[in-house]
Design brief:
By secondary structure, the chain is an alpha/beta fold. The chain is built from eight helices and seven strands.
Length: about 240
């Protein structure tokens, strides 16, 4: 029997590429996102089983996710690729709050819904899995993108907490925290970030990490080295560095 995956944030970029790759590998895939025309366009290409329009910032989003799971006939993988962020050197409050709403509240709302569904419904012998796009931006506080960096750190810790809770409760739920570097998507369009990755290549790394049961995956090896070096920089020095584009 084919495994079943829900891809949240499948309307563009990494989420779209992961949905297409999972479908090509024989998964039954349900997709979700805010832009219904893009969901319908992806469905029309074939390979995707069903879709649901979902805005993760809406209080109705959990019920809509459960509806999508019913359409798909169950779920073995919940993949979360819904996030926003800006460089915000002027500290525009609206941008900061929108980022927190999506990457903090929306993320928690959807991941918790998936976790609780798995806790009560998953019957397969293999573990259910929640895999989420976070970012290397959670490694250190980035002054140019305060809310984005901080919410990504929140996501890193939250997923670690859920992984521990699943073990404490003896639940068959595994967690994968996916931390890409800078990817050529709408999120950073027009920026001059170095070492930008292609969404198609990132998707291949992601699906491989899921299939191999990785708990944390930094993409790619160059960013793995960068993150390691960042972690060695003491706070007093880090806050004196100018990291922006």
């Amino acid at each position: 029997m084919a495994k079943k995956a829900i891809v949240m944030g499948a309307t563009s970029g990494i989420g779209m590429e992961v949905a297409k790759l999972l479908a090509a590998k024989g998964w039954q895939v349900g997709i979700a996102g805010r832009r219904i025309e893009r969901l319908q366009a992806l469905i029309s290409q074939g390979g995707i089983t069903c879709y649901q329009q979902i805005d993760v910032t809406s209080p109705d989003a959990p019920a809509q996710l459960l509806e999508l799971i019913d359409k798909l006939g169950g779920m073995d993988l919940y993949f979360h690729s819904s996030g926003i962020g800006w460089q915000n050197n002027t500290l525009d409050i609206e941008k900061e709050l929108k980022t927190v709403e999506t990457n903090g509240l929306g993320f928690t709302r959807m991941v918790d819904t998936a976790f609780n569904w798995f806790a009560t419904h998953h019957q397969n012998n293999s573990k259910a899995r929640i895999a989420c796009i976070t970012s290397i931006a959670g490694t250190k506080g980035l002054g140019a993108s305060p809310a984005y960096s901080a919410t990504k750190r929140f996501q890193n810790h939250y997923l670690e907490c859920l992984s521990q809770q699943a073990r404490m409760r003896h639940l068959p739920i595994a967690i994968t925290d996916i931390r890409p570097g800078f990817v050529k998507t709408d999120l950073i369009a027009g920026s001059s970030y170095p070492l930008q990755l292609k969404p198609e290549d990132v998707a291949k790394h992601i699906v491989s990490a899921i299939e191999n049961g990785k708990e944390v995956k930094v993409i790619d090896w160059r960013y793995d080295i960068l993150v390691f070096l960042w972690q060695l920089i003491p706070r007093w020095l880090w806050t004196r560095l100018r990291i922006t584009t």
